[in-house]
Structure formats: C-alpha cells, structure tokens
Amino acid sequence: MIRIEDLSVAFEDTEAVKHVSLDLIDGEVLGVVGESGSGKSVTALTLMGLVSDSARITSGRVLFDDVVLREAGKPCDKALYRKYQGARMSMVFQEPMTSLNPTQRVGRQVEEMLRLHTELKAEEIKQRVLEAFRSVGLKDVEKVYSSYPHQLSGGMRQRVMIAMAVILHPRLIVADEPTTALDVTIQNQIIELLREINRKQNNAMLFITHDLNLARRLCSRIAVMKDGKVVELGETESIFQNPVEEYTKRLIEAVPSRMKRRRKSGVAASDVEKEAGAAAADVSCMEGRKDMEGPILRVKGLRVYYKDGNNSLFARRKRQCVVEDAEFEMYPGESLGLVGESGCGKTSLSRAILGMNREIEGEVAHTTLRPQMIFQDPYSSLNPSKTIGWLLMEPLRARAALDKSFAMSREDMEAAAYDMLHKVGMEEKYFHRKPSQLSGGQRQRVSIGQALITNPGMIVADEPVSALDVTIQAQIMELMRELQQEMHLSYLFISHDINVVYQMCDRIMIMKDGRIIESGDTEEVFNHPREEYTKLLLKNS
Predict the structure, then answer these.
(1) Which positions ≥6 away from 35 have C-beta within 8 Å?
(2) Over 355-412, what HEC string results?
(3) Opening angle at CA 339, ends 333 and 341, nearest 5
(4) For the chain, does the N or the C end have fewer beta carbons within 10 angstroms?
(5) CB 27, CB 218: distance < 8 Å
(6) C-alpha–C-alpha distance, residues 331 and 490, integer Å
(7) Model confidence over 163-197: pLDDT tens digits?
(8) 3-state class of 510 per DSSP?
(9) pTM to 2 decimals?
(10) What is the mean pLDDT of each run of 10 residues along the chain (541 residues)?
C-alpha cells in the first residue's frame, strides 16, 4: 500500500532524511525507532504531506497504492493530498494538548473530519462522533463532546485524537510518539486501543517511538533510524534477539529494565563487579546507614491542600486535600523512589517538602539547608533568554540575597559555574550558549547543575528523564549516580516509569489517589508486591 523509495529530505543545508526506503502493507504495524533527530518524524510528516514548506525532497518519492504523492524536484500537490488526508491516511500526534484547538470544544473538532469528507447531516455527524468516542473507550461521551481540551485528562485527550484519526476508517494511521506524555497504565490502555483498532479495521500503522519496549509490544516489523538513515530493518523479535548493528544493540541495552541487575545508590559503573563479589557479605547497605545516621528528611502525618484563588474564610473551608497522611523518612546517601500516575499527588507532595506549598498540616523536617529540585522538562524550566553560565550562577545569587553570611564574588561564582559544567560532563564552550542551542540531554545536565551548585545535600528529582530518549536517559541516570557518590547526595526520585525507579532507587513508595499505599526496599516491592495497584503497575510496565 505504502512505498517510500530512496527518500531524502533537506532543510536548507541540513539533510534530515537520507535515502530512506520503507514499505507497508494492509494490516501491518511497522515501528520506526531511534533517538531525537534521527529523521523518524520528518519521514512520517513527508509521507503525510505535513512537512514544512521549507523542506526540500532531494531524492526519491512516496507512493500510496502506486499513486505518487511526493516526488523529488516537484512541489507538494496539496489538492491531491487533501483527497488522502483524513479519509485514507490519518495521524495521531505526540502531544494532543498542542495539536487540539484550545478554543474549540473537542466534539466540534472531531466533527470537522466528517464535514470535510462526507455528505452527512448535522445530527448524523454528531452521532458518528459520539460513536467514535465510545469506540476508543471514552465514558460519558456527551460530556466529552462538550468539553474543551483543557477540561480532559491527558489520556482522554489522546483518545479524542485517536477517535479523530480513525473516524473515517483510513487505511493508514501514522502514530508519532502517541504515548510519550502518558503514565504507564494509560500508555498501556492506548497501546491496547491501537492494537484493537488495527485488528478490527485491518488498517496499516506506522508507529514512531523512541521506546523500544512499546515497539516490541505493538509492531510486527521494526526499522531503526540513525542520523537520517535506516540502519536496520527486520522482524521485531529478530531485531531484539539478534541485532546486527552496534547502534541497535546500544538502543536495546539502554532500555531501563527489571531484567538488568540494579546497583545501590552511590555505586559507580566501574564498581559493579566488585559490588557483585561482595554482595553475599553485604546484608543491607541502607540498614547500616539507618543505624549510623538519623534521617535527612522526616515526613509525618502530612496533608497537602490546594485552595481557591481568593483568600476568604469560605475558600479556606473549601480547600481540596490532594495528599493524605503521608509518612516516611529518607536517609543520607539514599535514593527513595516515588511512583504513581499523573494526579496521584507525587508533585504536590514534593512541592510541600520543598516549602513551595504552605497549605499543609503535619510535619516536614529536613536537616539540609535548602533542598533543590530537578524538573521534568528543562526546556520550559530554563530561562531561554539567558546564557548557561548565567543560569548556573543564578542559584548562587539567590542564596547570597537570602543569606547575608553567604559571601561570594562574581569571579568565584563564575569559577563555581565552570566547575559545575565539568561535573555534569559539559565543555566550557557551553558557558556562553543559550538553552535553545543545546540538545535535550545537555539541557537536562544544566538543570542538574543548577540544582547541585549550592551543595544542597538533598535533591527532589521530578520525572528527570521521562522527556529524554532512551540512550540519553541512560546517560543522565548514570550521571546522577556518579554525582550522588561524589557529592553524598540523597534523591527523592519521582517517576511514573517503574523500570527507571527500579534501576535508580534503594527503596520505593507507591502512591495512589493522594496516599502512599505501599513502601519498602526495591527488591521486596518488585518481587512481593502487596497491593493490587502495585501489581497492576508492575504488570503494565
């Protein structure tokens, strides 16, 4: 059905896709995997006729049932594409919040597909939309139909996007990172939904992802892309069991997994073998720490609230409790994991621990002066108008403004910023660059440097690797381990990815609906979960 022949796509002087050839038959699910910048999305957008006007097709062509849609040296025939887009080929985008119109109700947006491509009457169109919403597992479809995108959860928005993509039963669905922003349980539901749609409608699917585990679950074949080229192509299990290319082997090796041996906090990669030899004699590293030292953080009977915008007595009475009776301790040098779905209270708990939300009851006591935070998305948390050097010095300036006993000259601050650049594995040349000139992994290294430059002792890491490719994710996790050992850090590591937490943490807490429902040593929780919810998380990951 689909043939991509020797396709090359360039933006000005940069060739983003280089001589890519792929084919796709009816009913097949083909996975395209690779890191950011590998050419996955540009290939898909070119196929769909959605690549920007600045792109040039320098070689090859794209065919649908032997009809040439794109060809080197010729402009995009937008009139031809309009006959195919929506009706015969459709796309599910990565982030529905940015691809849905925030000013229109979602029912109206999905209806547009039917208004453009059918002769149905208004009432028939609405019924078809409601039927599509039911088919993708949405409940209370009349309410969803009337809702704006911001009134729906992330999983619901993605189901709306899928309903929009499949409502005309297209023969091809292109799914571009459709689950990246979703929790593991919602992610699992979306994958099952895509599989069910593929089975019922027998449509072909091009599934683009950097998550190899997802590709393995959904796809019959996989194409591995690197630097704009397809470096390996084959049956899914063959790729996983017997990868040919070194790059493919690195991608598979970098995937966080419970099958890999985990390391305790502060153990460097080079020390793993020594640690393995001493494992029998080491009853419990963490128990020893607890005996020798008191907790670095103690949370007791903590309840966290959010209230209405106004400060009236009525508003205070209406406060919503988002964390209930949280109680735990964290010890020096420990990595403590906090796992749960979006909306379960993880970030609210961390904000209360850091003093960013004062609407609390109970006790939060820590021995560190100023615990710091590593944020999920450094691109939105780093000031885009400032240089990396300025950003690294900002925590030092803030501390000096609050603490008169903390005296540091500008020269000393610059020296500390350069030193931190080295610590996080970056060259001095990045000191004068801005965040937009850095890759995602480099920006996350800067965010880590910002958190560590005041020697806080305790770090709250809120989803610090969820936005990163699998290989960059592995690098950042290794960097955090090395810095933990070097600077004697304690991490409260927040994530919805239970496999990442398994690799990083000594102990784990499971959170659901504002409560910590289970906690314990990592191996104990993974091997002998008590709660049904924990078992479900483990099953879905």
Answers:
(1) 210, 226, 251, 469, 470, 471, 472
(2) CCCCCEEEEEEECCCCCEEECCCHHHHCCCCCCHHHHHHHHHHHHHHHCCCCCCCHHH
(3) 155
(4) N
(5) no
(6) 7
(7) 999 999 999 999 988 887 677 777 888 888 899 99
(8) strand
(9) 0.74
(10) 96 91 96 89 94 92 96 92 92 81 94 92 95 90 93 85 91 88 77 90 91 88 96 96 93 75 54 43 46 83 80 60 95 94 86 91 89 82 93 93 84 95 92 87 91 93 83 88 92 89 94 95 94 88 72
Tokens 């660059």 sit at which residue?
A: 433
For tokens 């922003």, the residue is 181
Helix (H, G, I), strand (E, B) or coil at 521: strand
CA distance 189 to 438: 34
**DSSP track, 23-80:** EE-TT-EEEEE--TTSSHHHHHHHHHT-S-TTEEEEEEEEEETTEEEEETTS---HHH
Cα 340 to Cα 391: distance, rounded to the nearest angstrom: 31
Query: How far from chain centre, in Å, is Cα 143?
Result: 28
| Lateral strand order in the sheet of 372-374 | 372-374, 458-462, 490-495, 335-339, 507-512, 515-521
Using CA atoms, how far apart are residues 525 and 258, in angstroms rounded to an integer? 12
Q: How many other CB atoms are there within 10 angstroms of residue 156's CB atom?
A: 21
pLDDT the model gives residue 245:
95
